[in-house]
Amino acid sequence: MAEPDVGVTTAAADIAAAGDPGRMGALRNGLAVFDMFDVNRQTVTATEIARFLGVHKSTASRIASNLVLSGYLVPGFNGSGFRLSGKFARLGSIATLDANLATVATDYVNALVDDVGETCHLGVLEGDEAVTVVLVNGSYAMRMHSFVGKRNAAHTTAMGKALLAGLSEQTLDMLFPKKKLSQHTTHTVGTLTDLKDQLAIIRKHGFALDNEELEPGLRCVAAPIADHDGNVVAALTIAGASSRLTIGKIDFYVAKVKGTADAISDALGAPADWSYNTA
Known about the structure:
There is one protein chain. By secondary structure, this protein is of the alpha+beta class. The chain has helices at 10-18, 22-34, 46-53, 57-69, 87-95, 97-116, 158-164, 169-175, 192-205, 250-267, and strands at 73-75, 82-84, 119-126, 129-136, 151-153, 208-211, 218-226, 232-241. The chain has a 6-stranded antiparallel beta sheet. Strands 1-2 form a two-stranded antiparallel ribbon. It is elongated and about 70 Å long. The protein starts with 9 loop residues before the first helix and ends in a 12-residue tail after the last helix.
């Protein structure tokens, strides 16, 4: 049966016209193949790939074979063509995680700010950095300049440490190969060994403290947020001047941040009895 002529997209035509020798050309061609798939086309053949990219069929077959070897495509049913692998479901869930978190969490964060009057952040871990994805300013002026998308070294913040506490020892060793950590203030944890000791305490008590470790005069408390599998996917922070978030009042703020973080976890479908799991 003759296969339909799917044509050549503008992007694919640009790739073909440029020639794109070497690895970058192969990478771009491979990525362009993924644009062929949609809900109405779940299987593509080497001939269709060749037409789409404007390349010889043998080149298209080689591209598809490499994508199969890499785990991104699988052979179609009855050996006809190629389908997307299950890897895309995992990658898609990761890509939408931040947006889902922001949608679910924003009302809770607003309510927490109304309750305590301090600025509150929700963030996720990217490598060894904590990245703010939700920010609601409190009624007090903050010396720390914060914004959605702001990145901080995870070991310097309560948010980051609450997130790091959800990682295994092996992952921590990979993130911090130098063992000695950058210090932002005299209070910042300075070694991986000391950080691991702090993380053990965080796992035990369920919250993290930034005691002027990112910035002098700034104190924060944070609690982890879990997804439906009980994995730590975010952390919620109350941040304020150390003159207001005094050590004597920390228990009050810890109860508030943990209560809201637990509510967000519940909204994400976390198990009722979830706890830090770093196995």
